[in-house]
């Protein structure tokens, strides 16, 4: 998952759900996005493997203000947040499971 982010933070109010104890995977999706389904499966598998990791899926069409604020240009886009909500990685398109695990490693190492 390429793309280190600039330290922007998101909280429960922005993403509409509680942050994970150790990290949060945030997926921006749209209803007719075929890769979004596969991305959801991959992120669910990874979140289930790592204790304290939450998965939050956001409907990009319903949250256009947030999409614009975060400069989300396509779906799926995945943000990896650390325990404090800082964006440590972002990637657009279908992620590889190994890349998600590696990005999570950066988020939970502290």
UniProtKB/TrEMBL annotation:
This is TlpA family protein disulfide reductase. Residues 21-100 form the Thioredoxin domain. Gene3D superfamilies: Glutaredoxin (3.40.30.10). InterPro entries: Thioredoxin-like_sf (IPR036249), Thioredoxin_domain (IPR013766). Transmembrane segments: none annotated. It comes from the Bacteria.
